[in-house]
Specification:
The complex is a heterodimer. Chain A is an alpha+beta fold. Chain A has four domains: 187 residues, no CATH class; 244 residues, no CATH class; 241 residues, no CATH class; 147 residues, no CATH class. Chain A is built from 29 helices and 22 strands. In chain A, strands 1, 2, 3, 4, 5, 6, 7, 8, 9 and 10 form a ten-stranded mixed β-sheet that branches. A ten-stranded mixed β-sheet of chain A has the order 15-18-19-17-20-16-14-21-13-22. In chain A, strands 11-12 form a two-stranded antiparallel ribbon. In chain A, a hairpin with a 2-residue loop joins β11 and β12. In chain A, α3 packs parallel to α13. Chain A is globular. Chain A starts with 9 loop residues before the first helix and ends with a helix. Chain B is an alpha/beta fold. Chain B has two domains: 239 residues, Rossmann fold; 31 residues, no CATH class. In chain B, the strands form three sheets. Chain B has a seven-stranded mixed β-sheet, with helices on both faces. In chain B, strands 2-1-4-5 form a four-stranded antiparallel β-sheet. In chain B, 41% of the residues are buried. The chains are: A alpha+beta, B alpha/beta. At the A-B interface, α12 of A face α3 and α4 of B.
């Protein structure tokens, strides 16, 4: 403790408060602390948020009633007059009291947190509905009782008296209205029932309440599905009691309420519901005895597993960026330590000559910088948590993650202070006590080459590893090098450019050709070039990181959008039994086309099998997905070449593939055997809608295929995401047997980990930009006295005040503009080098697309411009109106 | 004089055969060429000489801020040339006070005068009791204990610097041109303070051209081109050093008597006389 006696001395006791006496230093160090806190603290919070977000998205994509617990039982319908339960007849379902079973199950899951409202559904089977005396043929309906249904149907009309809710499609066919009396035939029995109301057929309109009943509502293919008619449970039982129906299927569904879920909440729900599910299927358990035999489903574990994999994928991607950001912030602390040394030079000399050791002086530096650093780190942590809450994948992060983030931010802050103390101790050893000079090294080592070497190594690794997207199960993770490489490349290249651009020789040459204001600015930059170069580098790196993140995300979205839409060919694709177009009255008709696909077996002599796509040139372009990079010519131009199809001679085709010759013969399946179609290639494309894999594709006029009698596999392609289209087409009698949506394929590509990692990179870039701005402010603050004196001397020597103002503006503009131009340019280069490695669907065409986010670039320019104007105004204000003698005395 | 006898006899510090050579691109620059001097306790010694003579180098060696290339500096009987950096720092902290030429360079802007004295006393780990009022009174700053440096004039700041250097009773106080930045009144007041403190038993070594300091010094050392050319003790005669080759450096007033730079040397017994030819 003897060695630490200096801590009792006044300068050390007062050190924590001394930072407030130097606002510029306080702010500079504080902002570095903010970046430390943000970089170190954001990672655990962001990763936790990503897990919560992945969980929420996974559950939102699916049906909550499918994901949560569903207990399915067969229940006997009690006979009229018998009090349930009754002993079942041999072979009949177990007799269970539905009400008792429900209350037992509800009791079993009580206490499960984050659970939605339980729904009980009883399926009463199909019935024939007719109106007595009506000549209209009876209509099949499915009898369903589902608690809460009345709040989830689109009611068209209703009466007060109880009865059945009838779908409008059925009501129209029966000419029934609310209040009509229906005859329901179930088997041999006919049960009269009033129509309580008419509602929109669930096939045409329904909300997520009905999602678990989708298989019952919407069936493709030859099977027909009776529309669902809704009753309440007592009514349904009353009807069935009058029939011979002996059993019903009952579902008890316990959906999750995932709005505020974190992973720990999800696991808690999983544990509770899993236990109930297992118990309900254990014949020895009290629960199983109460609810009878049957099955239970719980899909929550799969969602949790997916979220965990997403969490790991995001963590691996953002980890290197977080570390790099902490390193950058530590560098800023080091720079701030240098500024502190300059400002405290007199005091340091006084204390050193009185015997204070370098260690004691370093401790003073730590104490003095501790308040802004720790305050900044706390603020950075708060910014991290708030930013993730507002802009992150989810507003929910684990409390434990926030605790880990807090500890990380504190450790990072202490690390920064320790590094700063080492810098102080090292430089104080070189203190020339007589002159007070700190022995500052004027030349910065050539660190840029080291960083560029690391960048080259990272890029080599990226190139040799194959793709930068690694699939581990359903979740794809981004190789962290994709994010680290551009940061290294930006830092190294920008540093070199700044070093060269701010070299003495170049500035001297430039100054000779500039007007007075430019000459002054160039001279100032030259005098402080060792401080200015890091400012330009930092500006370039921060802008570059933001631009890189935004542009790579845009490229990724465009690539996935193209790939997932190229394969189906359009936003929605319906496979038909016979070629029937979208009814002209439907709004989607204007964006639809008919297509024929011959999937397998189409061959050309001597060449691998190709897929043949028959299109209607007049309507294809309005429905199909197209990207200008697919071909040299536009799509309408290509389609025009198909329109000319002679009755004899080769038909024109568009070839998609490298191996196809200009003249070929296509072998196609016909009703009576193989058909041969001579063809000539009139256009080529690198990719084409409907191209399923990288197999060759031949695009031909559909009429030519029809003319020769090719067996068709027709499809409707629609450039619309209207989810109700399926129902409308079925209702219109279009024979759909399968449907697919590009959005479903895109959702399955699990882009979130990659996009979120890129979003994180942008946040770090913005924080780096804030630090850079403060660094630029510190740069000017450190030179403030010299600048004021220089300006006053220049004015005294005859330089006009306006010229002096312009010189200041030119100096600020040179720093910020140089950084902006270099940053944007290098970001473009980095994206161009990396984007092709980020292919989440490598087996699907087209190749990855390149996008540069111009909007973000505009924001960067605007931000730099505003910052420059504000900084110039502050500098001008601080340098004005002090007499020269006073300035000379201060400068002594 | 042996170290123990130096301590017993009241020698605050001395230097023997001090040589200091600094490296340069052309080889080495010899700044001091064998300085031999004694600084008794309770005395004021002025070091004079032209710019570049080696005065500041000698002060830094005496203050143990540097180690000599050869020779020995002894502070209160303790040789210093072989001390480790840590031991040197402790020696400087406890036994030596230093006053820089520019008054603001001696002070910490946020500490009051009293706080400065207390800090110096703490850093010196002195066994004596600090009497800040008495110390300030000895430098004519009785009314300034709560004043910060920016509330003091240059002369007051420099007097405070002297008081700080003296706080905790170091063996030696070194001042490098302390009056150079002061007006005549300030310089006179500072010199008065130094003399007062000297009479109270402090030992000062001051580099100065200012007669207000040199005239009141107990001894004046004249340095020329790194060599101790002459010593004047109080009102006694100027003693000129004879180097091993028999050469001496005459003071300026003597050189003025020899316009042709030729002198006649007359040796009569043990009396040697230099006269104009």
């Amino acid at each position: 403790m003897e060695r630490l006696r200096f801590l009792r001395w006044s300068p050390w006791l007062r050190a924590p408060l001394l930072a407030f006496r130097s606002p510029a230093l306080f702010v500079g160090v504080g902002v570095a602390g903010v970046v430390l806190g943000l970089a170190a603290g954001s990672r655990p919070v962001f990763v936790s948020s990503a897990a919560s977000g992945a969980l929420r998205q996974d559950l939102a994509k699916g049906c909550p009633y499918d994901v949560g617990l569903r207990v399915v039982r067969q229940a006997a319908v009690p006979a009229v007059g018998a009090s349930p339960p009754i002993a079942p007849a041999s072979g009949a379902a177990s007799a269970i009291d539905l009400g008792a079973a429900e209350s037992t199950l509800v009791g079993a899951v009580r206490g499960t947190p984050h659970l939605g409202t339980e729904v009980t559904t009883v399926f009463g089977g199909n019935a024939e509905a007719s109106i007595a005396g009506n000549t209209e043929p009876p209509q099949q309906i499915a009898l369903v009782a589902r608690r809460g249904a009345a709040q989830h149907i689109h009611i068209l009309s209703a009466v007060a008296s109880p009865g059945i809710w009838l779908p409008d499609t059925t009501a129209a066919r029966l000419h029934a209205v609310a209040g009509s009396l229906l005859d329901l035939r179930v088997g041999a029995a006919v049960v009269p029932i009033a129509v309580h109301g008419i509602f929109r057929d669930l096939l045409l309109e329904r909300d997520q309440f009905w999602c678990s009943l989708q298989p019952q509502i919407e069936v493709f293919g030859n099977a027909t599905t009776p529309p669902v008619a809704v009753l309440d449970q007592p009514q349904l039982m009353e009807v069935l009691q009058q029939t011979e129906k002996s059993s019903v299927t009952a579902w008890w569904e316990f959906p999750p309420d995932a709005r505020n879920w974190t992973m720990s909440a999800a696991r808690a729900v999983q544990a509770h519901l899993g236990s109930v599910s297992a118990s309900s299927q254990d014949p020895n358990s009290r629960l199983a005895k109460a609810v009878g035999e049957g099955v239970a489903h719980l899909d929550l574990p799969a969602s949790i597993q997916h979220a965990q994999e997403t969490e790991a994928a995001v963590a691996s991607a953002v980890g290197p960026v977080s570390l790099a950001s902490v390193a950058v912030a530590v560098l800023v602390i080091i720079a701030a330590s240098g500024t502190w040394l300059e400002r405290r030079r007199v005091e340091l000399r006084v204390l050193a000559i009185r015997g204070a050791s370098p260690g004691a002086l370093a401790a003073k530096a730590m104490l003095e910088l501790s308040v802004p650093t720790l305050a900044g780190a706390a603020a950075g942590l708060a910014v991290a948590v708030t930013t993730v809450r507002w802009f992150g994948p989810s507003a929910m992060a684990e409390p434990r993650a926030v605790l880990v983030a807090s500890v990380s931010a504190l450790v990072a802050a202490l690390l920064g202070l320790a590094v700063g103390a080492v810098v102080v101790a090292t430089r104080v050893r070189n203190l020339n006590v007589r002159s007070g000079v700190l022995g500052e090294k004027e030349r910065l080592p050539l660190w840029e080459l080291i960083v560029l070497a690391l960048a080259a190594a990272a890029y080599y690794e990226l190139r040799t590893r194959g793709g930068a997207v690694v699939s581990s199960g359903p979740v794809q993770r981004v190789d962290g090098l994709v994010l680290l490489f551009p940061v290294l490349m930006l830092a190294g290249t920008a540093g070199l450019i700044a070093r060269v651009a701010l070299s003495r020789r170049l500035l001297s040459v430039a100054a000779r050709h500039l007007p007075t204001s430019g000459w002054l600015a160039a001279r100032r930059l030259e005098a402080g070039r060792w401080r200015a170069a890091p400012m330009v580098t930092a500006t370039a790196v921060s802008i570059g990181i933001v631009m890189f993140g935004a542009s790579l995300a845009a490229s990724l979205r465009a690539t996935v959008g193209a790939k997932t839409t190229l394969a189906p060919g359009a936003a929605q694709v319906f496979n038909l039994q016979v070629p029937v177009p979208v009814p002209p009255a439907d709004p989607a008709a204007a964006h639809s086309t008919l297509v024929t696909v011959t999937a397998e077996g189409a061959t050309t002599a001597g060449h691998p099998a190709s897929v043949v796509l028959g299109v209607e040139p007049a309507t294809f372009a309005r429905a199909a997905f197209w990207e200008s990079s697919f071909a040299g010519a536009s799509l309408p131009n290509l389609l025009r070449r198909l329109s000319d199809h002679p009755d004899t001679g080769p038909v024109p085709v568009i070839a998609v593939g490298r191996s196809l010759p200009d003249r070929l013969t296509i072998a196609l399946p016909g009703d009576k055997g193989t058909l041969f179609l001579p063809a000539r290639v009139v256009g080529r494309a690198k990719a084409f809608p409907g191209q399923q894999t990288s197999r060759d594709l031949l695009v031909v006029n559909r009429a030519a295929l029809t003319r020769i009698g090719v067996t068709e596999a027709p499809q409707i392609w629609v450039n619309s995401t209207d989810l109700g289209l399926t129902g409308r087409l079925k209702h219109a009698g279009v024979p759909i047997f399968a449907a697919s949506r590009a959005s479903d394929v895109a959702a399955g590509s699990a882009l979130e980990p990659q996009l979120w990692a890129l979003d994180y990179l942008q946040v770090i870039g913005l924080a780096a930009g804030a630090v850079t701005l403060c660094g630029v402010g510190l740069y000017f603050a450190a030179n403030a006295r010299r600048r004021r004196l220089g300006t006053a001397l220049a004015l005294r020597l005859g330089v006009k005040a306006r010229t002096a103002h312009q010189a200041t503006l030119a100096e600020v503009a040179a720093l910020l503009t140089g950084g902006l131009v270099v940053g944007v340019g290098l970001a473009w280069l980095a994206v161009a080098l990396v984007f092709s490695r980020l292919d989440p669907l490598p087996n699907s065409p087209p190749n990855p697309l390149f996008r540069f986010d111009a909007i973000t670039a505009v924001w960067c320019v605007a931000g730099a411009a505003v910052s420059g104007i504000v900084l110039t105004a502050i500098l001008e204000r601080s340098s004005s109106a002090r007499p020269l003698p006073e300035l000379l005395r201060d400068a002594r | 004089m042996p170290a123990d006898r130096r301590e017993a006899s009241g020698v605050a510090a001395d230097c023997r055969d001090l040589v200091q050579i600094y490296p340069s691109d052309q080889g080495g620059v010899t700044v001091l060429r064998g300085i031999h001097a004694t600084f008794p306790k309770g005395t004021l010694t002025s070091i004079v000489g032209a710019s570049g003579a080696g005065k500041s180098t000698l002060l830094r060696l005496l203050a143990c801020l540097e180690a000599p290339s050869a020779g020995q500096v002894t502070i209160a009987g303790q040789p210093t040339s072989r001390l480790t950096a840590r031991a040197r720092r402790r020696l400087v902290a406890r036994r030596i006070g230093y006053v820089f030429q520019r008054p603001p360079d001696n002070l910490i802007d946020y500490l009051t005068a009293a706080a400065h004295l207390r800090l110096a006393w703490q850093m010196r780990e002195s066994a004596t009791v600090l009497d800040a009022e008495q110390l300030l009174a000895s430098v004519a700053l009785s009314g300034a204990p709560k004043k910060r440096p920016d509330e003091l004039s240059d002369g007051e700041q420099q007097r405070l610097a002297v008081a700080i250097a003296v706080a905790g009773d170091p063996d030696l106080i070194i001042a490098d041109e302390p009056t150079a930045d002061l007006d005549p009144a300030g310089a006179a007041a500072l010199a008065d303070s130094i003399v007062r403190l000297t009479k109270a038993g402090r030992t000062f070594v001051v580099s100065s051209h200012d007669p207000v300091v040199t005239d009141r010094s107990d001894q004046v050392l004249v340095i020329r081109r790194g060599v101790l050319a002459a010593v004047k003790s109080g009102r006694g005669p100027l003693r000129v050093m004879v180097d091993p080759a028999g050469r001496i450096q005459l003071p300026d007033e003597a050189l003025r008597q020899l316009p042709g730079r030729v002198a006649e040397v007359v040796v009569e017994g043990d009396v040697i006389t230099l006269q104009q030819p």
